[in-house]
Amino acid sequence: MTAATGLRLALTIVAPLSILIAMAVGSVSIAPDTLWQVLTGREAGLASTLVLELRLPRALTAFAVGGLLALAGTLLQALLRNPLADPYILGVSGGAAVATLAALLAGAGGLWVSGSAMAGSLIVMLMVFGLSHGRGHWTEMRLLLTGVVMAAGCGALVSLMLALSPETRLSSLLFWLLGDLGQPVSPVAGLIVLGVGLLLVMPFARALNLYTRGEAVAAALGENIVLLRYGLYFLASLLTATAVTLAGAIGFVGLVVPHGLRLLGCADHRCLLVNVVLAGGSLLTLADALARTVISPAQLPVGVITALLGVPVFLLLLSRHSRKSP
User: Fold this and answer.
1) Residue 294 in 3-state DSSP?
2) pTM score, two decimals?
3) Fewest CB atoms within 10 Å of the CB: 67, 124, 145, 194?
């Protein structure tokens, strides 16, 4: 069994297990036998309401958001051939956050918020691509630096809107910016976007493998570089905008998950794309369960948990990779 196959098998087990754990833990714990009765329809009391109406939708939303961010990070890292690239560094999530925050302050909701997030991410995407191209040739470093500057600008706009927002709404807005999965949203849209995004990108796994070896190599072997470049960035923007709409600004997932899986021996995009969805979804689902439990009945922003968990895991994987390198 290869390392990639073993990793896929492990993640296939961990993914549903993380959702079960998220349904069982919280301010009120659900015993395994009670959880089984709820899931099989033999329990219709308070436990059924708690699991099926509150925790299950939240767990599925967390899984969708984690998968969206991890898949977007994988695409951007392939696009830039840089393991430090992710939706937040390139400003895509910052644009979505600015537009969403503006919509929330204006009192909008529902599709207006979702549309604002998508519009904000696409505007920043177009600005980054336009400014990074300029009058010269497009380069990965120029795109990365332009994205960092745009992310800083979006951060400044977010700070300005928070400073001007009413004090009565400041706490909820700050909680959302740190990553909030406590809002009553349906996970269906996130799961659909995640599934469609994965189906769209899987046929391009070979092209991604070639692109990471250099544009010249990919072009020589028949790949359309321009179409691949813009397609990757557009799809990554769509995935990021959906994640921001569902859960606010949650960092680190798109950075640590794909890079961590590569360090564990899963570099081929034919297996990496599915694995990052499973790993990213599982990571955020477990992180949200921890955020609901660690100081229950109060809750922590899940973005804080992902950062606290992601930093040491990333450093551990990097250290392990360094020891294996000659």
Assistant:
1) coil
2) 0.87
3) 145
